[in-house]
Design a protein that fits this description.
- This protein has 386 residues and is α/β, with parallel strands linked by helices.
- It has a domain of 107 residues.
- Helix 6 crosses helix 8.
- It is 54% helix and 18% strand.
- The strands form two sheets. Strands 1, 4, 5, 6, 7, 8, 9, 10 and 11 form a nine-stranded mixed beta sheet that branches. Strands 2-3 form a two-stranded antiparallel sheet.
- The chain has 14 helices and eleven strands.
């Protein structure tokens, strides 16, 4: 019988290395084939909707853009971005198969839910109405805050405490026997003590005893605390009165009838105004389409529109990021018809890909990434340090 000779040690090592190298090449080739088989998603975005999606210095930014970037990176989804003129046209593109994913803070309204396919919602938001306050409104609001019973009670309480401290000072320092009292009279002298304790300057001349100095110190503390309470009260109530002035004119969305209202085309806000116009025989809303939410603020300041209607998040962003230049904008209404917001999917998007995106959204919501992105998108931009 023929005998097989065993391979030398070097030959066996070479054979093992060759087999390992072949397996590695096959694995790499399989990975490249798998990567090549991953479809490139066509993603649509809309400009002019900060803080959700907008272009800044040529780059796409915003809450929804950043969220999509994290999802695509997490799931390894290749994609290309195209810009669309309005949300409505972008949604139609997903329905007809020209887009795979529409990215933005897209409201999932009942009529849209019946026509389009959406991802798992990542946040909820309502609509808001922004109006412009005049300086006359601010003056009236300040006067109204001054005439409230609570403010009169605060002032009365302060003056009463000072009067008691003045009486105590009068007794401790024996003002009834002092030469100044005898020459100027009791009423005039007491009035001086009261005035000095109430205002502060000259209080070191009122007393000479230890107990008298203690009373002056108490009066100082009363002035500090009372001043803080009065400033805080006026600040809160003036702001409340300004808000009340705006809300006094617009208490619900139906009060927009007869006004010129700016909205972005193809949005739920525009659909709401069209619904108002279709449901009444009275004054109609004059709908003025806006290219972007920022341009709407310029229209409001210049007086070409009476109000802006848009997502609560977007109008709040305007209040903190726009150059006011003396303007006094205010949100007259907030939280109108809150709805979930999500991405839109093409009807032909593979179910497996849609599920991967939904699971990524769920994981990013649970880990706090979505709420963190929302906070970063709306916080005021601090001035650079010099």
């Amino acid at each position: 019988m023929a005998r097989h000779r065993a391979l030398p040690l070097e030959g066996r090592i070479r054979a093992v290395l060759v087999s390992w190298g072949t397996a590695l090449l096959l694995a790499l080739a399989g990975a490249e084939v798998a990567a090549a088989s991953e479809p490139v998603l066509r993603v649509g975005v809309v400009d002019g909707a900060p803080p959700c999606s907008y272009r800044d210095a040529g780059d796409w930014q915003g809450l929804s853009i950043e969220l999509w970037n994290r999802i695509a990176t997490r799931e390894g989804l290749p994609y290309v971005v195209t810009e669309w003129p309005s949300v409505q046209e972008m949604l139609e593109a997903t329905r007809t198969g020209r887009l795979d994913v529409a990215v933005g803070c897209i409201n999932v309204s009942p009529d849209r839910l019946a026509r389009y396919r959406f991802s798992l919602p990542f946040q909820e938001d309502g609509l808001a109405v922004m109006v412009l306050q005049s300086r006359l409104d601010l003056g009236r609001s300040f006067l109204a805050a001054l005439l409230t019973p609570t403010l009169l009670q605060l002032l009365g309480g302060y003056l009463l405490v000072i009067a008691l401290l003045a009486l105590l000072t009068w007794a401790v320092e024996h003002y009834s026997r002092q030469p100044e009292t005898l020459s100027h009279g009791r009423v005039r002298t007491f009035g001086k003590v009261f005035q000095v304790l109430a205002t502060g300057p000259g209080s070191n001349t009122l007393v000479i005893t230890t107990r008298g100095n203690a009373i002056v110190l108490v009066a100082y503390l009363v002035r500090i605390v009372s001043a803080s309470l009065l400033v805080g009260y006026l600040t809160v109530n003036v702001a409340r009165e300004v808000q009340g002035t705006a809300a006094g004119r617009i208490r619900s969305e139906s009060d927009l009838r007869g006004l010129r209202v700016g909205v972005r085309s193809g949005t739920v806000s525009e659909a709401l105004l069209k619904e108002l116009n279709a449901g009444t025989t009275g004054p109609k809303v004059s709908i003025l389409p806006m290219a972007s939410i920022r341009s709407g603020f310029d229209l409001l300041v210049s007086g070409r529109v009476d109000a802006l209607l848009g997502d609560n998040l977007q109008l709040s962003y305007l209040l903190t990021h726009s150059e006011l230049n003396g303007a006094l904008p205010s949100l007259a209404l907030q939280g109108i018809r809150p709805e979930s917001q999500a991405f839109a999917f093409a009807s032909g998007l593979p179910q497996a890909t849609a599920e991967r995106i939904d699971l990524a959204i769920s994981a990013l919501k649970r880990s706090g990434v979505v709420s963190s992105l929302r906070q970063q998108a709306t916080e005021p931009v601090s001035a650079p340090a010099r």
